Amino acid sequence: MSDNIKTITVKLAAFVGCALFLALMMGLIFIDVHWMNNALHETSFTEVFQEIELGAIALMFFAQAYRQVNLRYSLLLIGGFFTCMLIREMDFLFDRVHHGAWVWFALAVTLICLWRAARHLPATLSGLVNFLRHPSWNMMAAGLLTILIFSRLFGMHELWETLMLDGYNRTVKNMAEEGTELLGYSFCLLASLRYLWDLCRLKPEKTGIAWQSQY
Questions:
Q1: Secondary structure (3-state) at 212
Q2: Contact by Cβ (8 Å): 32, 44
Q3: Digit-coded pLDDT (tens) for 100-147
Q4: DSSP three-state, residue 186
């Protein structure tokens, strides 16, 4: 009985915490639109926090890759993936070097991470399976689908031009697209925190069998 109550309490607390975090993220969009005169651009609160979330995710995975020997190369690969997403989000900075230069920086990160992971392929695959078996993968997948698929389709010019006709306002489209992306990044951050928190609570040598016994 007490274990059931504890589980319900923990899950409700996590739900409330996630709800408050998402409400805070929505507040950033409100600030950009209402107080910053529709300032949804590269230096808006919305886009800056997207980059902060991506940077935080990448750094956390790289930090755990240093600590978790058994999962090092899978964590390195995941961290590299989010680093590439960060580079893409900050393309306006790399454009100062050369238009489209972000591609080369992202490609360099990709090759380095793939090279390290490929040299230890069994350990990499085992680590990726460890992540996919963890409950946080479901939220991570939802976040990635929101970012990579839904937000791209939801932000299509044709959709909003047809919807608003002669009253087409690009800021409305940008708000919808960037807000959806922020939601996806928030899901990814919350999922990363859950997974990496559980890793921190385990001894490195036990990470390979932890999720089967705990969930």
A1: helix
A2: yes
A3: 889 999 999 999 999 999 999 999 999 999 999 999 999 999 999 999
A4: helix
Assess contact for 77 and 114: CB atoms under 8 A.
yes
Phi, psi of 131 (to 5 degrees): -70, -45
Tokens of 95: 């454009």
Task: Tell which residue, 143, 149, 150, has the closest CA to residue 188.
Answer: 143
Three-state helix/strand/coil letters over 14-76: HHHHHHHHHHHHHHHHHHHHHHCCCCCCCCCHHHHHHHHHHHHHHHHHHHHHHHCCCCHHHHH
**Rounded-to-integer distance, Cα 107 and Cα 84, Å:** 8
Cα-only R_g, the chain: 19
Contact by Cβ (8 Å): 134, 211: yes
| Sign of the CA dihedral with 185 first, then 139, 81, and 75 last | positive
> How much is the pTM?
0.89
